[in-house]
Amino acid sequence: MNGPFHPSPAPGRPRQFVLEDVLDKAIQRFSEYGFNGTSISDLNSALGLTSGSIYKAWNDKRGLFLAALNRYMDLRAQAISELLASAHSGRAKLEAMLMHYARLSSEDAGRTGCLVIETAAELAAADPEIAARLAAQRQQREAQLCRLIEEGQQDGSVRKEADPATVAKLLLAIQQGMRILGKTGAAYADMQKLVLEALRLLD
Amino acid sequence: MNGPFHPSPAPGRPRQFVLEDVLDKAIQRFSEYGFNGTSISDLNSALGLTSGSIYKAWNDKRGLFLAALNRYMDLRAQAISELLASAHSGRAKLEAMLMHYARLSSEDAGRTGCLVIETAAELAAADPEIAARLAAQRQQREAQLCRLIEEGQQDGSVRKEADPATVAKLLLAIQQGMRILGKTGAAYADMQKLVLEALRLLD
DNA sequence: TATTATAGGAAACGATCATTTCCTTTTGCA
DNA sequence: TGCAAAAGGAAATGATCGTTTCCTATAATA
Q1: Is B128 on the interface with A (CB under 8 A)?
Q2: Interface of B with A in 90-119 (CB under 8 A)
Q3: Which CATH number among 1.10.10.60, 1.10.3720.10, 3.40.50.11540, 3.90.198.10 corresponds to the domain B15-86?
Q4: How many CA atoms lie less than 13 Å away from B58 in the CB half-sphere?
Q5: Numbered ranges of CATH 1.10.10.60 in chain A
Q6: How far is CA B187 from CA A159, B118, B125, in A?
Q7: Pick from B45, B73, B49, B46: which is nearest to B135 by CA?
Q8: How would residue B8 be classed by pLDDT, with cut points 50, 70 and 90?
Q9: Which residue is nearest to nucleotide C8 (CA to C1')?
Q10: SS3 category, B88
Q11: Mind listing the pLDDT tens digit for each residue in B36-54?
C-alpha cells in the first residue's frame, strides 16, 4: 500500500539524521584509516553521532562498516554506469572508465583511497564473509570489463586478437594499481598519461 | 677491530632468537592482518616471543612493524636484483620482473599479500613518517622501471616512442594491481597470461 | 492528553589493548 | 666464583576498546 514516497512514518521518534549522509562520512573515514584504525570514539566525531545512535542504526561497528562498504560499491557502480551511457563504442567506454579512475586516483581523492582495496588489504584474511563479498564484486567488475572489450571487438574499436578475459583482468589490475599509486600521491596529469598509454592495449 | 664475523659478543645474555627469522614471521602476520589487526598477544604466538623480548628488541609495536617493513622492502629488492642479473635485455628484465609479480600475486602467496600495499592502504593517512617511507620506496621502484625501459629502448627491445616515465608508472600500477587481485584469489596461469598481454605495452 | 514506540545520548561495563615492572636466567669477564 | 650486563618471561598497569544500560526526547496514535 504505502510506497516509499508517501510513507506512513514508522512509529516512534523519527531518525534525526540521513542514513546515506552518515554512511558517506563513514566511507571517508574507513577509506583513510581502515576498520581497525577507526574506533567508535573516532566515529562519534567523524559521523556526529553518539554510540547509541550508531548501535541502534547498524547493530555494531561491523554492521556500519558493511553498510558503508555496500554503499561505496553501489555509488561507484552507479557512477560508472552513467559514464558508460555517454560513450558510444567499446573503446570509448573503456577509455572513459579508465579516465574516471585516473581522476579518482589523483590528488586528494587518491590519498583518501578506495574502500574496496583498503578492505581487501586489511580484512580479506581475517573476515571470510567480507572476503567473499569482495571476490563477488571483483567478479562483476571483471565481467563488465570483459563485455566492454567484446563490444569493442564487435564495433571494431578494439583489436580482435585480444583475449577479452585476460585484458579485462589486466585493465582491472591497472585500475586498482592506480588507486595504490594514489595513496602515496599522484598527479592528475601523470595518471591521464598513464591511461593513454594503457589504451594501447586495445590496439 | 672486530668485524661482524668474529665478533666479541655483546656483554650479557645473548639473544635466543634470530632477528631475521622473527621478522619474517612478523611480515607474514602484518601482511595478512595489518598493523591494527595484530595485537601484541597475536605477536606472542605468531613470533613465539613474549612481550618482554619484543619490547627489548624493537622498543614497541611500531618499531617491530617498521623493522618488518624495512626487511620486507630489502628482501623484495634483493629478489628483483637477482632476477635482473640473469636477463640480458631491457625487455627480458621487465618480463622477468612482471612474471615474478605474477607468481607473488597468485595462489597462497597472493592471498598473503604485499606488506607495502597493506601499509599504504592502512597507514598512509594516519602515519606521515611511514607514508614518506612508502613514497620514497615507490619513487625508487619507479626509477628502476624507468631505467629498464630506457635500457630496452637502447638495445632495441622496447619501442622507442614510449615515454619511459609514463610506462614505468603504468608497469608499477600493473604490478600493484596484480597484488590486489591476488588478495581475493588469483590463478597463476591467469596472472601469467595477464603479464604476456601487458608486455604488449613495450612493442 | 495518555500511550506506545523508537531515537538520542551520557555513563558504565567488562574485555582487551600496548606497555612496563620486576624477577629470573644466561652470558663474559674479573 | 662472583659481578655486570643483557635477555627471557610472568604479572600488573592504566588506557582504550566495543558494547550495553538506562534515562530522556520526540514522534504518531488512540
Answers
A1: no
A2: 111-113, 117-118
A3: 1.10.10.60
A4: 22
A5: 16-86
A6: 25, 21, 32
A7: B73
A8: low
A9: A53
A10: coil
A11: 999 999 999 999 999 999 9
